[in-house]
Amino acid sequence: MDIATELRTVLENFVTALKLASAAPKPTYSIDGQSVSWGEYLKMLQEGIKATSELLGTFDPVEVRTSII
User: Fold this and answer.
1) 40 within 8 A of 25, measured Cβ to Cβ
2) CB proximity list for 58: less than 8 A, separation 6 or greater
3) Which of 1, 29, 64, 67 has the greatest CB tally within 10 Å of its CB?
4) What is the pTM of this model?
């Protein structure tokens, strides 16, 4: 099992879910004592994208080099 590949799949899933959720947002509501907060759901997806991207960065580090000519 390649962890970086798995993380890329997780990231793709988060992005797809965020894309779908933001295309048709719903209001916050309560049904039978259960509350559903659409804003919290969107926030959770955004935090998941950020955290997964950071984890993925540990597997694909980027080195920036600059030079002055």
Assistant:
1) no
2) none
3) 29
4) 0.76
